[in-house]
Amino acid sequence: MTQKGILLINLGSPDSPTPEDVRPYLEEFLMDERVLDYPYPIRRMAVSLFILPKRPYSSAEAYQSIWWPEGSPLVVISQRLREQVQARTQLPVALGMRYGNPSIRSALRELLDAGAE
After folding, report:
1. C-alpha of 99 from chain center
2. What is the pLDDT of residues 14-66, one digit of tens each?
3. Residue 1 has pLDDT above 80, yes or no
4. Which of 68, 82, 102, 115 to pair with 8, CA 20 to 30 A apart?
């Protein structure tokens, strides 16, 4: 019998509310063609030349204003949800973020390591 698993997915968050961690998160998010619906060369130019030079600083300030001592509110709440779901099932449960960490790929690895197929 195939072992099933539960994969919870949320949007994501930077690793910390610093410009150094907000920058790669914004780049990953904004380079998604479903977020900025422009051809790749235009999207790359806009993100690299106009958005990433300054936006990580203002976004980091915004993240700092909502950041919890445990980390990103979205990630912390998602982890709490994962724990609550895990407490109610025998199936392995993993959490992955579309952008940032923990990645969906790492969550799938976690499920495979736990015996899900």
Report:
1. 4
2. 999 999 999 999 999 999 999 999 999 999 999 999 999 999 999 999 999 99
3. no
4. 68
Token duo for residue 33: 């063609």
- CATH at residue 103: 3.40.50.1400
Total domains present in the chain: 2
CA distance 74 to 96: 12
Dihedral pair phi/psi, residue 96, rounded to 5°? -135, 145
First vs last C-alpha separation in the chain: 10
CA pair distance 53, 72, nearest whole angstrom = 23
Size of the chain, expressed as the number of residues it contains: 117
